[in-house]
Structures are given as structure tokens and as C-alpha cells.
Write a structure and sequence with these properties.
Helix content is about 70%, strand content about 5%. The chain contains 10 helices and 4 strands; from the N terminus they run ααααααβββααβαα. Helix 3 runs antiparallel to helix 5, helix 5 crosses helix 6 and helix 7 crosses helix 8.
């Protein structure tokens, strides 16, 4: 009797299971959901790091400066402001000489600020190691392509560079690789902004197309109005050429596509992470200034 009474007061095993299993399942479910909602350590965004917080004021200041210089460069390119314009508008010789010198530095300053902002944006979003590696890959490849073209005529033709793009390393101005670093990285981020899950090969092809179109947009202005570069004639007795070959634009597109294949993050990026806006806006500013310059120059003739 005592055993039966004890058994009656003790909850049966099946009742214990029916009450404890759902509780255990709820605890497990809650834990799984908590893990899924928490980003893994290696997928945390780079802007949560101390480096990103340290770079933030520099990024903001450089971006504002780039926008201001872009407005100045846009006015110069669009309205054809040059030494001749200053001679008509400024009568003081000393002031005019100073303004002429400053005017000659605008293009290089504009391109340098663009590259700096793109680099800092990469460092903030993907880490300093990725930004450094991408910059080294692109800058080195562009310098080699330009040097080969100067000495052999391949792949850009028998090109010669002026002084408008800053100091030179050998025969190639520093501003040239800085410009293409900005364009290639910005084009990559623009494509990924539209198609975040784009494969590496379609991404490379898209970046190559954007780079080729950008060069086609730039070439007539760079040669005829800005004096960035020109092409030597096959024989010394002929004058230099100022009509750009299409093969040069094609070469930049192919080079950009090949380089993009090597631009990979060191860590797997968070799928929810979007491409940063500053490189995309930088590319848009370049294209708008070039197109506006084409329109105004056509209207003036």
C-alpha cells in the first residue's frame, strides 16, 4: 500500500517527459536563434575595428576636400579655364603667375584626393591589409603597362606623358596609376552594389567594360584639352599624334578585367554588407565631369 501510495504521488515518467522535452527544445531553439543572429567573429565588418574609428575623421575630412576640389576641377574642365583665361581676367603679373601655377596642380590634386578616399574607404570596410594589397597590385600593373608603352609601343601605342599628372617615375607620371586605381576599385564596388552576389568572372568583365568606357570618355579631353599625353609618330620627321587609338582603350579594359580577378577580400565578407559609397560616388564624379566637358566643348565649336 505504501508503495502504491508513493507511486500515486510521484509523477509518471511519461508526464515528466511531456513537460520537460518542450522546455528543453525551446531552450535549444532560443540558443540556435541567438547564434544565428550574432555575426561570427571573422565576419564582423571592418568599420567596427579601432582602425576604422581612428581613420574616421581623416576619411571625413579628405572626402569633403575631394568634393570641393571636384567642384573646382569640374568648372575648369567644363568651361575650359586655362592660362589664356587668366591672362584676360587677371592683370597683376604676380597674382596671374601664382594662379597659373595653382591651375596646373589641380588635376594631380584631384586625382590624388580621389585615390586617397578610395584607399581609405577600402581600409575602413575591408581592412588595411586588403587595401594595401589591392593598391600594390593595381599601381604596379598600371606603371608596368605605361612603361612598356613608352619604350615599346605596346599595349597603349607610342605614348608620351606630359607634366599635368604630377611628378614622374621614369617616364610615367604618378597621377596615371592613381587615376586607374580609383577607377578600377570604384567600378568594382559599383558593380557589387548593383549585384552583390556577382561571380568573379562576370564582375571582372563588367569592370573591364566600365574601364574601357571611362577611357573612351577621357581620351579626347586628356589629349586635346588637358595635355596629359600624346603619341609619337613612327618616324622623327612627322609631328606627334593627338588622335587616340581605340586599341589603347581596349587595353585598359582588358587590364582592368584581369586585375579585378585578383581583387579578393582576405576574409569572407558578410552577405549583408553593402559596397561602400565613396568609391562609387568618385567614379560618378569623374564620369559627370568628363561628359559635361564633352558637351561644353562641342557647343563652343
Amino acid at each position: 500500500m505504501n508503495h502504491q501510495a508513493g507511486w500515486k504521488t510521484r509523477p509518471p515518467f511519461r508526464n515528466l517527459a511531456s513537460t520537460s522535452y518542450p522546455v528543453a527544445l525551446n531552450v535549444v531553439r532560443a540558443g540556435v536563434e541567438n547564434v544565428l543572429q550574432r555575426p561570427p567573429q571573422n565576419a564582423m565588418r571592418a568599420h567596427d575595428s579601432p582602425l576604422a574609428r581612428f581613420l574616421e575623421p581623416f576619411v571625413s575630412g579628405l572626402w569633403i576636400l575631394f568634393v570641393l576640389v571636384s567642384l573646382l576641377a569640374g568648372a575648369i574642365w567644363t568651361f575650359g579655364i586655362g592660362e589664356g583665361s587668366l591672362e584676360r581676367l587677371v592683370t597683376n603679373p604676380g597674382l596671374r603667375a601664382t594662379l597659373v601655377w595653382l591651375l596646373a596642380q589641380v588635376d594631380f590634386a584631384w586625382i590624388t584626393l580621389a585615390a586617397a578616399n578610395v584607399y581609405l574607404s577600402l581600409a575602413t570596410c575591408f581592412g588595411i591589409a586588403t587595401a594595401r594589397r589591392w593598391a600594390l597590385i593595381i599601381l604596379s600593373a598600371v606603371m608596368v603597362a605605361a612603361w612598356l608603352s613608352v619604350f615599346t609601343g605596346f599595349p597603349l601605342g607610342r605614348i608620351r606623358y606630359g607634366t599635368a599628372l604630377g611628378p614622374k617615375l621614369g617616364s610615367v607620371p604618378v597621377g596615371l596609376p592613381l587615376f586607374w586605381f580609383s577607377v578600377i576599385v570604384s567600378a568594382r564596388e559599383a558593380v557589387l552594389r548593383v549585384r552583390s552576389r556577382c561571380g568573379q568572372r562576370p564582375l571582372a568583365a563588367s569592370v573591364g567594360l566600365i574601364a574601357m568606357l571611362t577611357d573612351l570618355n577621357l581620351e579626347p579631353l586628356a589629349v586635346k584639352y588637358r595635355g596629359f599625353w600624346f603619341w609619337t609618330a613612327p618616324t622623327p620627321d612627322l609631328p606627334p599624334g593627338f588622335d587616340f587609338p581605340f586599341t589603347g582603350s581596349l587595353a585598359w579594359g582588358v587590364l582592368a578585367a584581369v586585375l579585378t580577378l585578383g581583387l579578393r577580400e582576405l576574409e569572407v565578407a558578410d552577405s549583408a554588407q553593402k559596397s561602400p559609397w565613396p568609391p562609387i560616388i568618385t567614379l560618378a564624379i569623374f564620369e559627370v565631369v568628363f561628359l559635361a566637358s564633352h558637351v561644353t566643348h562641342r557647343l563652343s565649336y
